[in-house]
């Protein structure tokens, strides 16, 4: 008897129920995406197809995957795009690499407030001479274009911008993914007024320099009695040096 893989689960088949009685189904994509699974610990197109076609109605697909085989991901993407019911994608952990392509198949993409999405260039392993390497590079270029197709359909962004984002290996939290069009909503409420706290070494150094320079100006403003020349550094000179250091840091 075939057992349901632990990384792909769904309610019992609802074939004998009336359409009005069919409830939404939930599938889980947890783990690596591969063409073939030797130990039922990977997500494969065939395993996903078996679960997807085991019932009717709208579905919710939860994704937590680091990615994997881009061809296998393309097959799953196409299955979801062709599915007759509404498809809601929910990302509760990570949708990276090939898994982000699958996420683009959702009619609605919802991310957990703590979920992440990552897009980058496809990669491969190649052996051979210079001609073989050139063929591998040309193949990767075409694979990248096919991946951009999925991102472009979902986001409406230009292909050039999407290509640059993939080159840079772009990580997005829920808010960034929504702003860029990769996701539609967040599973929960995000406070739009949350302050953005950032740390900058230059900012800290400049603030310190400003405080020191201000202290020097205050001390310099006080009247001083005439004293014999010494080897100590004058306040004007110190302030000038601090200004030069601050300017250099910027």
From TrEMBL:
Residues 1-21 are annotated as: Disordered. It comes from Streptococcus dysgalactiae. GO terms for molecular function: ATP-dependent peptidase activity; ATPase binding; serine-type endopeptidase activity. One of its GO terms (cellular component) is endopeptidase Clp complex. InterPro entries: ClpP (IPR001907), ClpP/crotonase-like_dom_sf (IPR029045), ClpP/TepA (IPR023562). Pfam families: CLP_protease. This is ATP-dependent Clp protease proteolytic subunit. Belongs to the peptidase S14 family. GO terms for biological process: protein quality control for misfolded or incompletely synthesized proteins. The lineage of its organism: Bacteria, Bacillati, Bacillota, Bacilli, Lactobacillales. Keywords: Cytoplasm, Hydrolase, Protease, Serine protease.
């Amino acid at each position: 008897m075939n057992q349901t893989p632990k990384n792909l689960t769904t309610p019992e088949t609802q074939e004998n129920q009336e359409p009005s009685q069919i409830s939404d189904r939930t599938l889980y994509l947890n783990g690596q995406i591969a063409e073939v699974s030797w130990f039922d610990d990977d997500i494969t197109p065939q395993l996903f197809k078996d679960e997807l076609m085991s019932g009717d109605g709208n579905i919710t697909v939860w994704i937590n995957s680091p990615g994997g085989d881009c061809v296998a991901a393309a097959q799953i993407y196409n299955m979801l795009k062709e599915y007759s019911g509404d498809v809601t994608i929910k990302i509760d952990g990570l949708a990276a690499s090939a898994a982000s392509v699958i996420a683009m198949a959702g009619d609605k993409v919802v991310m957990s407030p703590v979920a992440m999405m990552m897009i980058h260039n496809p990669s491969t392993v190649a052996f051979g001479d210079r001609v073989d390497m050139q063929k591998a590079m040309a193949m990767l270029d075409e694979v990248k274009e096919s991946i951009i197709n999925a991102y472009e359909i979902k986001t409406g962004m230009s292909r050039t911008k999407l290509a640059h984002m993939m080159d840079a290996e772009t990580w997005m939290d829920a808010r960034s993914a929504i702003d860029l069009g990769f996701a539609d909503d967040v599973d929960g409420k995000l406070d739009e007024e949350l302050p953005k706290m950032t740390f900058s070494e230059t900012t800290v150094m400049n603030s310190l320099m400003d405080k020191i320079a201000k202290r020097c100006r205050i001390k310099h403003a006080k009247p001083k009695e005439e004293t014999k020349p010494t080897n100590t550094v004058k306040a004007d000179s110190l302030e000038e040096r601090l200004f030069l250091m601050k300017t250099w840091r910027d």
